[in-house]
Amino acid sequence: MLQAVTEPRVAPADAVREAHLAAFRYMLRARLLDDKFAALYRTGKIHGGVFLGRGQEALSAALGVSLKKSDVFAPLIRDAAGRLAFGEPIIDAVRTYLGSSLGPMRGRDGNVHRGRPREGYLPMISHLGAMISVVNGVLFARRLKKITGTVGAACLGDGATSTGAFHEALNQAAVEKLPLVLVVADNQYAYSTPTDRQFACESLADKGPGYGVTAHSVDATDLTACLKIVGGAVAQARAGNGPQLVVARLLRLCGHGEHDDANYIVSELKNSPLGRDCLKVAEEFLLQNKFTDAAQLAVWRSEAIREIEEAVAQVQREPAPDPYAENWSAIASEHLNETHLENGH
Amino acid sequence: MATEITYIDAIREAQAHALRDDPRVFIYGQDVAAFGGAFKATKNLAKEFPGRVFDSPISEDAMVGMAVGAAIEGLRPIIEMQFADFSTVGFNQIVNQAATLFWRTGVPCPITVRLPFGGTSGGGPFHSQSLETIYAHYPGLIVLTPATVEDAYSMLLEAVAIDDPVIFCEHKFLYRHLKAEKLPSEALPVGKARIARVGRDLTIVAYSAMVQDALEAANELVAEGWEVEVVDLRSVKPLDTDTVMASVARTGKLLCVGESWPWGGVTAEVIARVASEGYGLLDAPPQRLNAKDTPVPYHPNLWAAHRPTVRAVAAAARKILRS
Question: Suppose A133 and one of A85, A169, B21, B171 were both cysteines; which one would form an S-S bond, judging by CB atoms 3.0 to 4.6 Å apart?
């Protein structure tokens, strides 16, 4: 008990405050990073698509801060906040978007397709639902290796719940009783398709019990609710209570990508409580409850902007991939490469 | 060890060997545990290796996805597809997840996906397919097609040790048709083709069960005075072009035989390479013989005419030899 005396004791109220502030700072940094990527896209500095998490930061950050570094995380396209909270350095994101040869994907893959698999941070493929069973595999392997206490989180949108991969993987996780947390951002549209053309159940949370999976619902415009529900689901999985499905409702406050003006999003939704900006809601909450003050918020904002600008400036000076120096081999076993296929013939 | 070892015994023994030697290996597939697999390729392995052999739900996509995750975590899973035909349900995870992982991230993906493939009569359109071509088309995959009991054993052992995703095509007809006296202690490495029969008049390139048909056809042609060389590719990716080219240099004539569909197949690939790199070696237009361009039929009469037979191989060979 001596340890308890010497260690600083955090009162529950302080713990709540700290959790909110930590998550909020990731939300803010993610929003500002996304804004920068959008600006770079508009000036033609980014090849390919740019995908923003605007409106999803509270959910994503709440998940990221609920995970430990030793956990497994398979984010999707709107999870900049969760990625930062899980420990991704801003420069990894910038290097991947700008295709730097020094980034984790070395220009071979781009934008939101980034990760470091050996660190439990899995790089998504574009096929929706496909990452869930990969997370299952890491968790299954850790069980075989007798590593305990790990949680694996996979993120998806409402559209991905219509895939066969989602069904197969959620069922697989339930059969194996894996510590999987599946976070569904029901953001009302899959690209342009509204939810009434995507599923017919009342709520996507209804899908949980059919698989024998505990389901949770949360208002993703409310950071407090996200911290409580997502954090609770992660704790449930960690405690050995099997896979958890979290269905979060929100509205995507941007296009599918920056190429999409999202003119199909109806104004009724924009003007509904679902259309609130989670970042603003969280900021007001922090100020009202005196968790912080406006001056501190301004400092965090300017610190984040400086960090992002420095990262972009650095990456813009870094070498682009060189096609003549590239090792055009898709396999690890160099001795099994086909010399007769070089140069496409 | 039994005195007579079948091709499927070899596959079972290779898996037992891998499980025994490497704690990272586990087996995951439908009915593979207590039941021992639809073809008994994992018979008794769950009992001999408790906690290492697992029944999966009927979810080919999730089976392969799980294998990729386990490989990232440093294990070496063997996935049994009940039939090669059903691997198409897991196709996305094989070609987009497993096959791209190393190239995208530098993290190897050592998984072995076993595909019981090829025709046995009565299988019909969905239990008979040969899918080596479609997997070989994708960068990032190794595609193996053993034709002998010895290769079934040694190549499966090597597949598990390879740091890349391996599509292991094991022929269902060969399972109980081929027998050997003992398992090999050494073998040609993956990536090397084998001269299955030495000849001087024509090169027949084949793989998997078609090697047996090609050898029988070659024996038939001896009576007519022809000596046919048979090259067993062993692996279709990588494809040992050098061994094929050296054989064609000796014989001047080429016939490629495959049990899969003709369009853009392994046989077409072999001919393309020989034509572009060894045109001057050829004394006659290279030919190929494949299954017909329809789904695989059910009735034995139709089935036997759908795939190349010994007779069809011999007839195709005669045509080239007389040209």
Answer: A169
